[in-house]
Amino acid sequence: MIEFREDQPRWQQVAAVLRQRIGDGIYRPGSRVPSENDLMQEFGIARMTAHKVMRALREEGAIYTVRGMGSFVSQPSDGSD
Amino acid sequence: MIEFREDQPRWQQVAAVLRQRIGDGIYRPGSRVPSENDLMQEFGIARMTAHKVMRALREEGAIYTVRGMGSFVSQPSDGSD
DNA sequence: AGATATTTGTTCGTATGTATC
DNA sequence: GGATACATACGAACAAATATC
Fold first, then answer.
1. Mean pLDDT, rounded, for B18-42
2. Is the pLDDT of residue B79 over 90?
3. Per-domain residue ranges of chain B
4. Checking CA distances to B59, which of A36, A37, B29, B41 falls within 20 to 30 Å?
5. Distance CA A10, CA B10 (A)
6. What single DSSP character describes residue B32?
7. What is the pLDDT along chain A (81 residues), one digit of tens a residue?
8. Angle subtended at Cα B56 by Cα B55 and Cα B62, rounded to the nearest 5 degrees
9. Protein A71 CA to nucleic acid C3 C1', in Å?
10. Nucleotides of strand D under 7 angstroms from a protein beta carbon
11. How far is CA A60 from the centre of its chain?
12. pLDDT value for B6
């Protein structure tokens, strides 16, 4: 369990952790990232907070989401077009 | 987007707008009124402010609320009993 | 076809903290 | 101190999509 700082919202801190894991390749392109339920368990946060985390990552293009399925790491765009 | 006056709280001004719409039949009895999230978007207010709006309308009997569903325009009472 | 479980989407209820007036 | 207003956070409930059995 991580210890949350008080100088930043929890949802931002969790988002930063997931962003790091994606960058490190722990979560690979196309593979599923933890569900909101998983995040609740791992970080001890409420579901709406987990939802906010995923929405942030989705809006910055790091993941995409399919209802009923989960969220997945986006394919990296290499800008070759 | 409406422009808020400074002589009255925002939640009262938004409540007045919704009250007007109900009176005008834009929101009809039994039909759903905008969610708190909708009000956040339309009026550019915080969720707690939107919640305060709905509570005011609920307390005056203009609407009723079901958790997880939303709020609905009350059925008019014609006093025929 | 139906039931069940999982997962995300959305809704309201509530509490706390901060800042401003 | 109180009212207003914002953001954050947790809780609870309903809904829809997906997959499996």
1. 97
2. no
3. 10-73
4. B41
5. 29
6. B
7. 788 999 999 999 999 999 999 999 999 999 999 999 999 999 999 999 999 999 999 999 999 999 999 999 999 877 676
8. 95
9. 26
10. 3-19
11. 11
12. 92
CA atoms within 13 A of residue B3's CA, in its CB half-sphere: 0
Round to a whole number and report the distance in Å from the CA of A39 to the C1' of D18.
20
Find where tokens 């609740």 sit: A40
Q: Which numeric CATH code is attached to B10-73?
A: 1.10.10.10
Count CB-CB contacts under 10 A for residue A55: 15
Nucleotide nearest to B13 (CA to C1'): D4
Taken as a whole, chain B contains a residue count of: 81
pTM above 0.70, yes or no: yes
The tokens for B19 are 């009250």
Nearest residue: Cα versus C1' of C10: B68
Report residue A56 as tokens.
Answer: 């942030």
Angle CA A12–B51–A67, to nearest 5: 50
Q: What does the angle CA A60 – CA A64 – CA A69 come to, to the nearest 5 degrees?
A: 150
